Structure to design on (312 residues):
C-alpha cells in the first residue's frame, strides 16, 4: 500500500505538472479514501483566499487518486476518467487546505468491482470535502468511470 | 473596454499565480462573454490529455472574468465569488483548449443588475463550454454571486 502511494506520488509529480505548480501533496490513505493537501500561497486569488478552480482541481484529483489506488489494491489494470461533477463553495478558504474523500459504502464498492470484472467497465460516485483550518468549506461530488485495458484478465 | 481587458489580464498575472502556471490567457470579449485560452502542455495528465481539474479551473475563471468585466462596464464596484457549479466532461481534450462563456440573455442581465442596485447583491448563472481543436468537449454551468462593497453609490 505504501508503495502504491509512492507510485501515485511519482506519477503526479512527473506526468501531471500542474499538480506540482499547485503544490498538491498526497498525504495518506484513510478509511478507503485519499487525503490531499495544498498550500494557499500557490493557489491564492486576488482576495487572498483560495481560487475556486484550484479547490475544484484538488477535489477532482482526490477522487481520481482514490480510484487509482482502489484499482491497484484489487489488481485491476484499468484507466479512470471523471465523467461529471458538481461542487458547492460554502465559504472562502482562508488557509492551506485539505481534500478528503469519503469512503464509499461497501455495497457501492462491490457493485463497482463486479461491473469492472464482468463488463470491463465500472462507475463510482465519490464525495469529497475540502477544508481549511476552520473546517469544511467545499462540498464536491464526482462520478468516475473506469475501463480496463485490452488484454486484462477478467473473471468472465 | 480594451483597458478593462488589460486590467483584468494584469490582475490575473499578479494576483492569481496559478493562472500563470496554467498558461491561461484572456483572449477577448465576445458577445457579452469572455474567451480564455490555455495550452495542453501546462495542463497535461498522465494520458497526454488535459487534466479535468485544469479544464474546470479554466471554465470557472472564464465565468468569473465575464462577471468582473460586466461590473466594470456598468461602473459597479463589487466583488464576485462562485457559489456552485456543475460540469460534464463529454470526452478527453487532446490539444490546447478554449473556454467560451455564452452571452447571458438580456432579461437575465437586467434582473442581475437590478438586484445589485436594489439590494447590493445579485446572482447570475453562466454557461461555459470548453473546446479543443475538434470542438466542444466540456459543458460547465456556474452560479456567481456579486456583492457591492460598502460605500458604493446605489440607486436606492
Amino acid at each position: 500500500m505504501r508503495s502504491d502511494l509512492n507510485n501515485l506520488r511519482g506519477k503526479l509529480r512527473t506526468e501531471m505538472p500542474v499538480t506540482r505548480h499547485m503544490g498538491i501533496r498526497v498525504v495518506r490513505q484513510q478509511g478507503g479514501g485519499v487525503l490531499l493537501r495544498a498550500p494557499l500561497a500557490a493557489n491564492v486569488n486576488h482576495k487572498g483566499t483560495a481560487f475556486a478552480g484550484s479547490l475544484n482541481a484538488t477535489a477532482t484529483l482526490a477522487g481520481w487518486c482514490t480510484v487509482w489506488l482502489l484499482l491497484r489494491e484489487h489488481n485491476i489494470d484499468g484507466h479512470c476518467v471523471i465523467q461529471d461533477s458538481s461542487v458547492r463553495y460554502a465559504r472562502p478558504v482562508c488557509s492551506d487546505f485539505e481534500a478528503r474523500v469519503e469512503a464509499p459504502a461497501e455495497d457501492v464498492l462491490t457493485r463497482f468491482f463486479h461491473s469492472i470484472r464482468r463488463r470491463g467497465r465500472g462507475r463510482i460516485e465519490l464525495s469529497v470535502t475540502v477544508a481549511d483550518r476552520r473546517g469544511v468549506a467545499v462540498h464536491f461530488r464526482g462520478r468516475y468511470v473506469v475501463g480496463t485495458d485490452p488484454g486484462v484478465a477478467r473473471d468472465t
